[in-house]
Amino acid sequence: MADKEPTAAEEAAARAREKAEQDALPYKWTQTIGDLDVSISVPGNLKGRDIVVELKKDFISAGIKGQEPILKGNFPHPIRTDDSTWTLSTAPDNTKVIEIHLDKVNKMEWWAHVVTTAPKIDVTKIVPETSKLSDLDGETRGMVEKMMYDQRQKELGLPTSDEQKKLDILKKFQEQHPEMDFSKAKIN
């Protein structure tokens, strides 16, 4: 049985339910494809020494010393602990916020939730912020530009960069060997 596309109303209800579930969490979180940020509001009289944050490759525990953790559980995917950090900052309304920055191991994966016990979000609905090509390192940028070029070529019915390279090699070979008949040659 094929899955039918949800109606606009079902879609809106699913988004509303998801938003309500996320709003009910004792923390807020956002993510990019490469990292994830969690913020937990705590009373304004607290200092850094009153906060306990434990970050392991696949586990987090965060909250106020001597109390049950506000956020505790296993990550759905591993993080790089060396590049993950936390700070305690003061919000404009003088409350304090524990800000936790998690560096994802897999930089090509959206997380459905921060910890596996929390309600999931629909990662297929994430619209990534358009990253500028100039933000990418040289090798990644070259790869992305080649993919974009090949995509445009395909749409126009033209050869991709790899196909063009083969055609150029064949053409050069033909020029060097005019005595050979290439009329029945197949390129694959």
TrEMBL record:
UniProt region (Disordered), positions on chain: 1-22
Protein origin, superkingdom: Eukaryota
Main localization category: cytoplasm
Job of this protein: Required for nuclear movement. May interact between microtubules and nuclei and/or may be involved in the generation of force used to move nuclei during interphase.
Pfam families, A to Z: CS
InterPro entries, sorted: CS_dom, HSP20-like_chaperone, NudC_fam
Protein name: Nuclear movement protein nudC
UniProt record, GO biological process: protein folding
Higher taxonomy: Eukaryota, Fungi, Dikarya, Ascomycota, Pezizomycotina
Listed GO CC annotations: cytoplasm
